[in-house]
Write a sequence for this structure.
């Protein structure tokens, strides 16, 4: 029987490696088959009430590794850490003394590399119930904060507990007439006792120029990225947002282009479940198709289709994907006349790259200084080509749907939902019907990490994402009839 506490302690054993494109600490968790104790009866009962029609209870996922729409070097924050399970059997005094010395050295390295390293606590069970039944304010440990032992409670108490406050300008999508779909996302969510309380469809999905005002600046500057602008310069934010002044920047898509009135969307993750799935035709049959990170298409058209309407990313995931998946044919991000790019503002570099892309000029500052955006987005682009997710929207999604236990860890500020999760939840808040392909399912152990890998590779759980929590959410949404999750 797996003990979560022992598993968390074992996860502390890490090695630092130098790998392109950045020198960041990485921690590796080898394939393990771990089982969890059964959920208490009261939790099982609550879960049955919160998940899906018919009161069916999902089976617990094996606690090994996670897989989702945005993973690998394409993980969202760039501080990906693989966990290495510690070895056992060192019983002699010599080894005990050596272990103590290594432990002391490791503790010192945590202090030195604390800004880059995130400790991980493996999930202890079906934690979606906490998100479904008890949505709470999002608490983030600010970066650069010292955390002596036992200081977490004091730190959390010192942070401002703010409720979610949407901007005054709602997304235009929410003013439309009721959907003509037989059963839309909105109707299904509102009919569900738990999800009906969680979904707030008036939340602004995108940020554009009219959102930037003194009230918004003063509020968001108190939140850490990606949920706000803490530590970012006023000039960097304002100079970018003032360029997002077209009507196309206010809505994800124009409903006038869909005379039928029912907009069906497919969100395609990169999970190995799609290899051999022959779902390409079904994916392309949707009105709009979202893809993300290392979206390899050539050679896998029969499984993943060819259609692409939106490409979602952060600058970090985009660049890392180009490096990590080049061997699989991902040599440039998708480019097409009708394709729109969805920026996830995880850092100031995303705002700066977006500004440079609209202006068609090299990046003037920061870690991407001198980079030419045209090599990513093509030579002919304008502001209408780009969408920027609202920090309020990211805050709302994390607070209500994916409030992970990782937020309570020492470096919880590194946590955010994966790129795939953000794209899927974006579609759920803008489209009438949503189908998810290539996302983690209960039998994820049967598939490789990505669908384009020649040899099967074990799925990887990254410390800045909570893939198992995301898996529980997708399963719950599927059982509730709010979306369709491809499974096999």
């Amino acid at each position: 029987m797996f003990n979560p506490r022992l598993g968390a302690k074992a996860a502390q054993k890490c090695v630092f490696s130098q790998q392109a494109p950045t020198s960041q600490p990485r921690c590796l968790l080898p394939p393990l088959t771990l089982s969890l104790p059964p959920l208490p009866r009261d939790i099982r009962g609550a879960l049955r009430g919160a998940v899906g029609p018919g009161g069916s209870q999902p089976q617990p996922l094996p606690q090994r590794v996670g897989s989702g729409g945005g993973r690998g070097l394409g993980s969202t924050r760039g501080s990906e850490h693989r966990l290495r399970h510690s070895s056992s059997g060192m019983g002699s005094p010599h080894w005990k003394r050596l272990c103590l010395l290594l432990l002391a050295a490791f503790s010192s390295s945590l202090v030195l590399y604390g800004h880059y390293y995130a400790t991980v606590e493996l999930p202890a069970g079906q934690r979606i119930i906490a998100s479904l039944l008890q949505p709470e304010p999002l608490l983030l440990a600010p970066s650069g904060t010292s955390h002596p032992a036992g200081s977490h409670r004091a730190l959390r108490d010192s942070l401002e507990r703010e409720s979610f406050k949407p901007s005054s300008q709602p997304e235009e999508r929410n003013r439309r007439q009721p959907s003509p779909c037989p059963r839309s996302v909105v109707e299904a969510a509102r009919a569900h006792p738990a999800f009906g309380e969680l979904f707030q469809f008036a939340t602004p999905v995108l940020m554009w120029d009219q959102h930037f005002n003194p009230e918004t600046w003063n509020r968001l500057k108190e939140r850490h990225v990606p949920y706000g602008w803490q530590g970012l310069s006023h000039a960097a934010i304002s100079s970018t947002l003032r360029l997002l002044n077209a009507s196309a920047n206010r809505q994800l898509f124009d409903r006038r282009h869909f005379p039928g009135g029912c907009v069906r969307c497919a969100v395609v993750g990169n999970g190995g479940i799609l290899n051999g799935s022959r779902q390409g035709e079904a994916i392309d049959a949707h009105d709009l198709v979202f893809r993300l990170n290392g979206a390899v298409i050539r050679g896998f058209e029969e499984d993943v289709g060819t259609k692409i309407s939106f490409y979602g990313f952060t600058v970090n995931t985009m660049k890392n994907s180009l490096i990590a998946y080049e061997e699989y044919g991902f040599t440039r991000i998708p480019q097409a006349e009708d394709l729109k790019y969805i920026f996830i503002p995880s850092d100031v570099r995303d705002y700066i790259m977006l500004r440079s892309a609209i202006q068609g000029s090299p990046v003037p500052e920061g870690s991407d200084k001198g980079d030419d955006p045209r090599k990513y987005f093509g030579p002919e682009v304008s502001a209408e080509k780009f969408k920027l997710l609202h920090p309020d929207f990211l805050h709302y999604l994390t607070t209500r749907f994916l409030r992970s236990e990782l937020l309570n860890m020492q470096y919880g500020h590194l946590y955010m939902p994966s790129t795939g999760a953000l794209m899927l939840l974006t579609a759920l808040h803008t489209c009438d019907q949503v189908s998810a392909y290539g996302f983690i399912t209960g039998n994820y152990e049967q598939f490789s990490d990505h669908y384009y890998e020649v040899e099967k590779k074990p799925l990887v759980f990254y410390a800045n994402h909570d893939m198992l929590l995301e898996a529980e959410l997708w399963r719950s949404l599927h059982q509730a009839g709010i979306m369709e999750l491809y499974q096999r």
Notes: The radius of gyration is 22 Å.
